[in-house]
Prior knowledge:
Blueprint: H1 2-13, H2 16-36, H3 40-79, H4 85-103, H5 109-143
Helix pairs in contact: 2-3, 4-5
Amino acid sequence: MFGESKIVKKMKEEPLVPLGVGATVCALLYAAWGLHYKNIQQAQRGMRGRVIMQGLTVCALVGYGVFRNKDAGQDAQSNMRPINWDKLEREAQEAEAMDSLAKGKQVSPAMEKLIAQAKKEREEKAKSIIAKSIFVQEVPESKK
Length: 144
């Protein structure tokens, strides 16, 4: 039943696609009928019609896709948060400094200060997460 409702929903959202598929099948059956009775002109018209109907169906699919992506693109842009370039730059410098420390290379005092600051921020963030998780665990116990 779930599959049926999804198909029906898609058919309502994109009515030209099922119509195109039906027209393509009709043109193919028309061509097959002509081949069966050895009517070459009918078979040719049916095959040409099939190609045209198939092309129109593909155009409908592409059109719906473009239309849907156009709407989704506008929604996505409104939901995007701004990029904090300073934070990204600081994290990149920190990663470079950590890599240099791991390889045993000399690190400048400014980089050492940056690494210490980053470690302190991570520790504070970890402590706040732990405190929140402890609080969340205590709430259900107190309700019992």
